[in-house]
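Hey team,

Filing this mostly as a record. A colleague (T.K.) asked me to run one chain through the structure pipeline before their review meeting, and I want the input and output archived in the tracker in case anyone asks later how it was produced. No errors, nothing strange. Just documentation.

Input sequence:
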Amino acid sequence: AWSLRRFHVPVDANALVLEVGSGGNPYPRANVLLDAYESTRERHWAPLASDRPTVLGFVENLPFRDGAFDFVIAAHVLEHSTQPERFLSELQRVARAGYIEVPDAFLERVNPYRDHRLEITCRDQTLVIRKKSAWWHEPEVVELYEDRVKPLITGELMPRHPFEFHVRYYWNNQISFQVLNPEV
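Output structure:
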């Protein structure tokens, strides 16, 4: 089911779909791709796929007119933003609906990535966002996790239950979100 999720995009066959942060493995349903860099460590140096119209740019300043797309996909890219309010505003500006997928805040807390700037979870159909003041909050917790349970979590539990470790958020007309610490 985890791999097949990339083939489920709930839009009409004629809908125009943008994928932001498309990287080296874009969703098959995306018609237009956008990524910030041709080459970057943030996607583990995977080459940028450009097998359809591809634009270089940042989500916080999308180079598209208002309402240009029927649907926008943002999978594993929001957590890289330093400006989540601007990021989400731009998605809403250029598309009528969309899909956001990120690692859940719990996973991010115990298994942090150097390039992730946000911890995100979903409560009552609202994205709850916490800006990270450092790439990891609690080095001792991370060390304990990595020493004992990381192989079990990432090798056995996550592959069997990937949806429990990720936020999958569909929106229509408006993204409901709250940034808990906008001052960071």
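Quick notes for T.K.: The mean pLDDT is 94. The two ends are 36 Å apart (CA to CA).
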